Structures are given as C-alpha cells and as structure tokens.
C-alpha cells in the first residue's frame, strides 16, 4: 500500500485564487458588511449599557477619626482625610474638616463607600448626616425668674456671657439686639462678623458680637444653586431671631403684638452677648451644624444653643452628641 502525503497533494493541486472571480468579490463584500454590522451592533450595545448605568446617589456622612492615628507620612490631618476618599474626587467631596469639638470630616459618599470607610485605620465612626428641624424655647416666666432678686439679679442678667446660637440666622436691625449700656466684648473673644449677601459686618455691635453662616452640605445636596440657600447670617426664616431674642434680648419697652399686650420685653439673659452661627433654613444638614458648633467652640462661646433636632436615635449614632459642646 502506498502512503501519500495529502498536504503535498493539496499544495500541488491547489489553484491560485482569482480576485476577479465574481464569487470571491461577493464573498469579500459580505465579509466587510458583516464586520461593519458587528461594529455598529457593538456601538449600539455599548450605548444601551451606558444609558442603563445610572449615577449612584450620594449621601453626606460625618466621619469621626482618632487624630493620633494619623500615619506619619501625611503632612497633616486634611491630607490623611483626602487619602480615604477616592482619588481625584476628595477635594470636592469633603465639605468640612472638624478639629475642635471632635476630629473628623464631613464627606459625600457613594454606595457602599461608607461601610468600607468605617473599617479604615484611624476611623472611629461613620454616621449618616441627617437633616434636622427647628424647635422652640422656654420663657423666663416658666423658669420663675424675677429681676428683683435671686439668680437672675445675682448673675447680673448674664453680663459678659457669650451665647453661640446655631440656628437660622439673625435680623440684626431688631431693637432686641441694641447694645445700649453694654461695654466692649472681652479681649479673649476670637469670633467676629462677616460681610455677606444682605448682611454687613458693620451691623454687629457690643450685643451681636459674631455672625457667620455654614451651608456647604446643603449646597452639595441641593438640586439647584438657588435651592441651596445663601451663605449669609441674615435670618429669612425668623426662628433664629426668635430664639436669640428669647435667650438674650436687650430690654425693649413698649413691645407687643400690634396694639395689644404692650409691655417691657427682655431675654432670659438680657446682658449676654450673641454670636449667630447660621445653618440653612428648613431642615439643616447635621454636617453644617457640626461645622457651626466646631467654629463656635473655637471662637470661645460660653454656651451653645441648638434649637434643632430630629427623631431620637442612639447617642453613639448621633453626630450631634458631641462631648464638650
């Protein structure tokens, strides 16, 4: 039996391809058409995929850290905090850094980033930045205070005390904040007033000794720039002015509602000084509130009034449960 190499037969018997053959030309056109169709299908497929991928919702979180755990190769705490957030996005997503009443930062996180960040070295807690609602206050009558004797008179009606209000701002032109009879604020006071939209620092006096605004968290979550509010201490809600005057209104004679109930109005501590740390109207985010508290303590207030709140939650999960505030 003779064994022959079929490859040799094929090479010797095969005919060269004639590129002018109509069949070959039609086959080539079909192959090109299929290639173009597949490419177009791929583009359409990719477009559908991209259209179906929706941007993940971001939430604001407050991250508590142990500042002594900062690795030595970071120049400062802010650089360390930025390293915990996705590269090239940290500068716009970190809204505040806190370094007085607590150490940490407020940041916008996506998806499961909060859970992953909670396990980062040096992080002691990650808390969702809830929104709050305005509350009301009590009156001197409820406390049984009498201007003629007792604790009220003995404390000289709060003279020299600086109360920091974390609230919806203040209307400085009100006669409730007149500084007649008050001396200059103590030299150790580190706060002050800012020039902002519809608010001039010159409106402050020896009664209103501080006025600032914090709204970065509200701006970050606002659907539009206008809905984020204006970073101005000016009160457009009325709550902050009401609370500040209830606590520390200067004596106002002839006060009343329209022509009724005329009398002398005064705050619980009519000689106390007021520093307003405005947070957004309506439902201010906790991240803005913590920034305001941090600034108030740094400025040197004696008392902080936060007439804001939300539904109760465990203290260890409450970003407003701040030691020393």
Describe the structure.
The protein is of the alpha/beta class. The protein folds into 2 domains: 71 residues, Peptidase S8 propeptide/proteinase inhibitor I9 (Alpha-Beta Plaits); 177 residues, Peptidase S8/S53 domain (Rossmann fold). It is built from 10 helices and 12 strands. The strands form 4 sheets. The chain has a 4-stranded antiparallel sheet with strand order 2-3-1-4, with helices on both faces. It starts with 5 loop residues before the first helix and ends in a 16-residue tail after the last strand. The N terminus is likely disordered.
Short précis:
The chain is an alpha/beta fold.
Number of helices, counting only DSSP H or I runs of 4 residues or more:
10
Gyration radius, to the nearest Å? 34 Å
Strand content: 15-25%
Strand order of the largest sheet: 2-3-1-4
Report low-confidence residues grouped into runs of 5 or more. Answer: 1-13, 42-53
Q: What would the average pLDDT be, to the nearest integer?
A: 79
User: What order do the helices and strands follow?
Assistant: HHEHHEEHEEHHEEHHEEEHEE
Give the overall shape, derived from the CA principal axes: elongated
In the CATH hierarchy, the third-tier topology of the largest domain is known as: Rossmann fold
CATH-defined superfamily of the largest domain: Peptidase S8/S53 domain
Structural class: alpha/beta
Give the N-to-C terminal Cα separation: 104 Å
> In CATH terms, what is the architecture of the largest domain?
3-Layer(aba) Sandwich
Largest sheet: 4 strands, antiparallel
Total individual domains: 2
CATH class membership of the largest domain: Alpha Beta
Q: How many strands? A: 12
**What is the helix fraction of residues, given as a range?**
25-40%
């Amino acid at each position: 039996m003779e064994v022959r190499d079929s490859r040799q037969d094929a090479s010797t018997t095969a005919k060269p391809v004639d590129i002018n053959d109509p069949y070959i030309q039609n086959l080539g056109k079909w192959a090109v058409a299929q290639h173009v169709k597949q490419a177009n299908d791929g583009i359409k497929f990719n477009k559908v995929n991209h259209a179906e991928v929706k941007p993940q919702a971001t939430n604001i979180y407050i991250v508590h850290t142990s500042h002594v755990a900062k690795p030595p190769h970071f120049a400062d705490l802010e650089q360390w905090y930025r390293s915990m957030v996705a590269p090239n996005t940290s500068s716009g997503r970190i809204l505040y850094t806190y370094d007085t009443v607590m150490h940490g930062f407020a940041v916008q996180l996506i998806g499961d980033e909060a859970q992953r960040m909670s396990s980062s070295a040096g992080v002691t807690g990650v808390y969702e930045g809830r929104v709050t609602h305005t509350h009301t206050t009590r009156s001197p009558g409820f406390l049984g205070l009498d201007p003629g004797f007792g604790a009220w008179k003995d404390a000289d009606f709060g003279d020299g005390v600086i109360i920091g209000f974390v609230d919806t701002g203040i209307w400085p032109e009100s006669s409730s904040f007149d500084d007649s009879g008050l001396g200059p604020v103590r030299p150790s006071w580190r706060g002050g007033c800012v020039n902002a939209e519809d608010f001039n620092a010159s409106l402050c006096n020896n009664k209103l000794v501080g006025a600032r605004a914090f709204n970065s968290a509200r701006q970050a979550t606002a659907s539009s720039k206008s809905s984020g509010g204006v970073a101005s201490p000016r009160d457009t809600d009325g709550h902050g002015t009401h609370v500040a005057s209830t606590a520390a209104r200067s004596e106002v004679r002839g006060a009343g509602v329209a022509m009724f109930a005329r009398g002398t109005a005064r705050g619980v501590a009519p000689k106390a000084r007021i520093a307003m740390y405005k947070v957004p109207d309506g439902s201010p985010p906790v991240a803005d509130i913590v920034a305001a508290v941090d600034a108030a303590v740094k400025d040197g207030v004696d008392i902080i009034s936060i007439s804001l709140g939300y539904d109760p939650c465990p203290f260890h999960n409450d970003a407003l449960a701040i030691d020393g505030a």
